[in-house]
Design a protein that fits this description.
Blueprint: H1 10-14, H2 39-42, H3 55-58, E1 72-79, E2 88-94, E3 108-115, E4 122-126, E5 133-134, E6 140-143, E7 155-168, E8 176-181, E9 185-190, H4 205-212, H5 225-231, H6 254-263, E10 272-274, E11 280-282, H7 328-334, H8 340-348, E12 350-351, E13 354-355, H9 357-361, H10 369-372
Antiparallel strand pairs: 1-2, 2-6, 3-4, 3-7, 5-6, 7-8, 7-9, 10-11, 12-13
Length: about 375
């Protein structure tokens, strides 16, 4: 049955291509089909070329085309002379064949600086295409205009993102321009001479791709969890994109955003995020195709368990939530348990000393996260 899609029929193909009239040939190259007997002669399982009339060829996803030269990022180093200084990054870009791609040849290229890795609270994006110094071997050196804060401690991170516009099938009726985006790379560096501390791992991209196949967002530019969390930090909201008459802003903190998106139609509150270009993205109709209480469907290393690691930002911004600011553990829980009763429960278990969630929901407690989420 897994190969059934390789056997073309009017019923199967017409279920997606619903603008085709097989009786008249409309939107089918004016070729009427009164039965399924002739389909296979044009629509064989696989032909010699991508984008041909074969079943596999016709369904080639442009961004996965073998004809794309590829964009391969490498960050060789990142360093800074101390707090209050501008970091310097060395990076290199090549195609899949190993040919150097100059920064100036990219249609979009950004280096994102964020920190501290204990829990990101700031992110700055800069375009290095015109200012990077490029050596003969393609190694580019770029010094940020932004500076590390004067009081910074610990480790910071730098990520790279970008794409080239590539024309596929030039000179044909199927000519199209495709973004050939690279896989994000993120490196970590110390700002004060202390040992480099990478950002903690909470979820695995492989788990995301069990459903999403190849998760990439913001025009294909962002495609690793390590890159996403640089900007989607506990203080992040959509304020810069949201119209003034739609304020207050919505949180886009990674934990709250992802939990709320996947909770979708089971949310008791609205979750609408304004994005690039003024796009309005409402997620209240999302249906999760599985058991949301299976935390390890996304999480790794028992990262969903309490207590959370030390050093996290204690006041997560949630301007449209019941509680604002909200503690880091409560932020995770209330993004799925979105009713006022759950918010009240979190509120009465939070004091000026912090959250007491792990007393009842710690790993050995009667109401441990594993136990209350058991199927």
């Amino acid at each position: 049955q897994k190969d059934a899609y390789l056997k073309p029929t009017r019923q199967a193909c017409g279920s997606c291509h619903d603008d085709v009239n097989f009786a008249t040939g409309e939107n089918h190259a004016d070729l009427p089909q009164i039965s399924d007997n002739q389909c296979k002669w044009c629509h064989m399982p696989e032909g010699e070329l991508e984008f041909d009339t074969s079943i596999i060829g016709a369904h080639t996803i442009p961004t996965f085309s073998k004809e794309l030269p590829g964009t391969v990022f490498e960050i060789l180093s990142a360093r800074v002379d101390g707090p209050g200084k501008s970091p310097t990054v060395q990076f290199r870009i090549k195609d899949k064949a190993g040919n150097v791609i100059l920064p100036s040849q990219m249609n979009s290229l950004s280096l994102v600086l964020a920190g501290p890795t204990a829990d990101y609270n700031t992110a700055v994006s800069e375009d290095p295409r015109s200012r990077a110094q490029v050596a003969a071997d393609g190694t580019a050196t770029y010094t940020f205009t932004a500076k590390i804060p004067d009081n910074a401690k610990g480790s910071y991170a730098v990520g790279i993102q970008g794409y080239r516009n590539i024309t596929l099938l030039p000179g044909t009726m199927k000519e199209q321009t495709v973004r050939d985006a690279g896989i994000n790379k993120v490196v970590y560096f110390s700002v004060d001479g202390s040992p480099v501390q990478p950002r903690r791992t909470v979820v695995a991209l492989d788990n995301c791709n069990q459903c999403h196949a190849f998760l990439s967002l913001h025009g294909g530019n962002r495609n690793t969890v390590e890159m996403c969390v640089l900007c989607h930090n506990p203080l992040a909201t959509d304020q810069a994109r949201r119209p003034a008459d739609q304020m207050p802003p919505q949180s886009v903190d990674m934990r709250m955003m992802i939990h709320r998106i996947h909770t979708g139609k089971e949310l008791e509150t609205d979750y609408t995020v304004y994005g690039f270009g003024g796009s309005v993205n409402n997620f209240n109709d999302v249906g999760f195709p599985g058991f949301r209480q299976r935390c390890d469907g996304c999480h790794v290393n028992n990262s969903y368990r309490l207590p959370l690691p030390a050093g996290l930002i204690k006041e997560v911004q949630d301007p449209r939530g019941w509680l604002n600011p909200v503690g880091p553990a409560s932020a995770a829980c209330l993004s799925c348990h979105s009713g006022i009763e759950a918010a009240s429960h979190a509120l009465i278990n939070t004091s000026r000393l912090g959250e007491s969630c792990s007393v009842c929901h710690g790993p050995t407690s009667a109401y441990a996260v594993d136990k209350v989420h058991a199927q």
